[in-house]
Design a protein that fits this description.
By secondary structure, this protein is α/β, with parallel strands linked by helices. It has helices spanning about 20-30, 45-50, 70-75, 85-100, 190-195, 225-230, 235-245, 260-275, 280, 290-305, 315-320, 385-390, 400-410, 440-460, 470-485, 515-525, and strands at about 5-15, 35, 105, 110-115, 120-125, 130-140, 160-165, 180-185, 205-210, 215, 335, 345-350, 355-360, 365, 370, 375-380, 395, 425, 465-470, 535. Strand 5 and strand 6 form a beta hairpin. Helix 1 packs parallel to helix 14 and helix 14 runs parallel beside helix 16 (about 515-525). The two termini are about 25 Å apart. The mean pLDDT is about 95. The structure holds ligand NA7. Ligand NA7 binds near residues 185 and 380.
Length: about 525
């Protein structure tokens, strides 16, 4: 049955994380009556939920923040180059208090359904407790990585120990001291957990399906002098994030890889490596994304670095990625991760050699036998880009279900709107850089600004409804596919392509034309009075 109209607002936002808070602040400024609906009991989104040991941003704190308030920039002091989860969460709590955002947020509220009502041109929402709300505009601020992926391991429910997904870590923590712990997954999350808990547990078994590249994080506690220097650079930083390929604050190496002689290529890679950041990935040689020969050479450089840190050459061979190029999947930063495998209390199970057959009451059975465990940690990632949206029963024009449509064909216009779903704005949805291939805060703030401008424009011009035309959407997808098709990223199995989930449509989630090109495309729509969009 379709959802009935309820309490009436101008706009509803789902999610009180990075995007939702800024969207609330922005729409309030337009004078709109807005509410945010949030499942958690607090703000912070990703930084509320992911409270597993070692959770930390891989983007430096100076570019993992809001730019909308100079006062906020002046008063907030980052403690570290890479903020830990607690610090990031504290930042969002501060922002919520500082701008009195909480009064317009309903916590502990999960949205079950959102239906477009053609007669009133409004979205009607129903929450899990049966409350109904309605609004002219619906903005989803769910984050690209909010729906945890729990793979369907056989015998899952028979395990008698503790089973936990990293993104649903209990707030009170888990006492891992002296326990036999298994971690499944060696992505950015798995790496952080593994390096954080190895010394504490009695035995750690890591179940690895795909070996990952990772770059040593050079974290640093900031002194007052560091902070002053960082603040002095804010104007340049703010400019740089909009003009660099993935919204970081440093431009890429200004040379084509093979234009440099081998010794200089090597020296440049060493310099990038020594920065202890993601620079070697996102601000290094762009050829890693599309040129196989360059990718192979750069990947071998990183493999050497990994091999040098592992004592046992057999273990090293398992940990060194062979089947994909450096940077074609998300590159994690790490702190002593590879040395963990030199410890006596750590073993690595290569799931290609010994696949998991099932979970048992006592642990996990692989084809090589049963491993007894007290705790199993699933660092198995997310249903990225789409999972947050398809968890909600969203129905557009003529009652068409997004969940149903997206089973076979995921379509959006610039990741911002979807044909057939008027007045729905989808931050972090597929086919914008924000879905994956971008410093999230940069791209998400840009999307919030675009949405806010769009809603302001409608108000100014006496319009109430906006929706991209079918042709505009097809043109954007064709453009996206053309760019994606030229990259190695699209040819590599990962959550970037939906490849982490069986049966998920295979298409690069993230727009890969770069932040400047994406912004230009969005600006053009605005400048041309939303050409290609239908306004009513
Ligand atoms: P990721 O990057 O998707 O990593 C998930 C890991 O879990 C990865 O190693 C997967 O192996 C592994 N996995 C997933 N399903 C299975 C099954 N069924 N069996 C064995 N192993 C499995 O998620 P993260 O949480 O680490 O990171 C997500 C993003 O958060 C990250 O990119 C940052 O942006 C922050 P696979 O590689 O698929 O073979």
């Amino acid at each position: 049955a379709s959802v009935q109209a309820g309490e009436t607002l101008d706009a509803l936002i789902i999610g009180a994380g990075f995007t939702g808070l800024y969207q609330l602040w922005s729409l309030r400024k337009l004078g709109l009556k807005v509410q945010v609906l949030e499942t958690a009991p607090d703000v912070g989104g990703t930084w509320y939920w992911n409270c597993y040991p070692g959770a930390r941003t891989d983007s430096p704190s100076n570019i993992y923040q809001y730019w909308f308030s100079d006062d906020l920039l002046d008063e907030w002091n980052w403690n570290e180059r890479y903020a830990g989860r607690a610090e990031s969460h504290a930042y969002f709590r501060h922002v919520a208090d500082r701008f009195e955002l909480r009064k317009d947020i309903r916590f502990n509220t999960r949205v079950d359904a959102a239906h477009w009502d053609e007669a009133t041109s409004r979205w009607n929402l129903r929450t899990q407790d049966g409350t109904t709300l309605s609004a002219r505009f619906l903005i989803t601020a769910l984050g690209p990585l909010s729906a945890p992926l729990v793979p369907p391991f056989k015998g899952h429910e028979t395990f008698k120990g503790q089973l936990v997904h990293t993104a649903r870590w209990p707030r009170e923590g888990i006492d891992l001291k002296g326990k036999r712990v298994g971690v499944i997954g060696t992505g950015a999350t798995g790496i952080q957990v593994i390096q954080s808990i190895a010394a504490e547990v009695s035995h750690l078994t890591v179940f690895q399906r795909t070996a990952n590249y990772a770059v040593p994080m050079h974290n640093k506690r900031y002194t007052d002098a560091d902070r002053a220097a960082i603040r002095a650079r804010y104007p340049e930083t703010r400019e740089a994030i909009w003009t660099t390929f993935v919204g970081f604050d440093e431009p890429s190496v200004p040379h084509a890889y093979f234009d440099l002689p081998p010794a200089e290529r090597r020296a440049t890679l060493e310099k990038l490596w020594a920065d202890g950041s993601l620079k070697i990935w996102v601000a290094g040689f762009m050829e890693i994304f599309f040129d196989l020969a360059a990718s192979q050479e750069i990947s071998e450089f990183v493999r050497e670095k990994i091999r040098a840190r592992i004592h046992d050459s057999k273990v090293a061979a398992k940990l060194v990625p062979q089947d994909h190029g450096f940077g074609t999947r998300r590159v994690p930063l790490e702190n002593g991760y590879f040395e963990i495998y030199n410890r006596d209390n750590v073993s690595l199970v290569d799931l290609h050699e010994a696949p998991i057959e099932c979970f048992t009451p006592k642990g996990i059975r692989t084809s090589a036998g049963e491993i007894e465990l007290d705790v199993i940690i699933l660092a198995t990632g997310f249903d990225a880009g789409t999972g947050g949206l398809t968890a909600i029963d969203i129905r557009g024009r003529d009652g068409v279900s997004l969940r149903q449509q997206w089973k076979s064909d995921v379509r959006t216009t610039m990741g911002l709107q979807i044909h057939g779903y008027p007045n729905l704005f989808t931050t972090s949805a597929p086919y914008a850089p924000a879905a994956a291939f971008c410093n999230a805060p940069t791209c998400l703030q840009h999307q919030v600004q675009w949405i806010t401008d769009c809603i302001a424009y409608l108000g100014k011009h006496g319009r109430t409804v906006i929706e991209p035309s079918a042709d505009t959407e097809s043109a954007w997808l064709a453009h996206h596919d053309e760019l994606a098709g030229a990259t190695l990223v699209a040819k590599t199995r990962s959550w970037y392509t939906g490849g982490n989930i069986e049966g998920k449509p295979n298409r690069l989630l993230s727009y890969i034309g770069g932040v400047p090109a994406y912004r230009e495309a969005c600006e053009k729509v605005k400048e041309k009075d939303y050409e290609g969009f239908e306004l009513a």
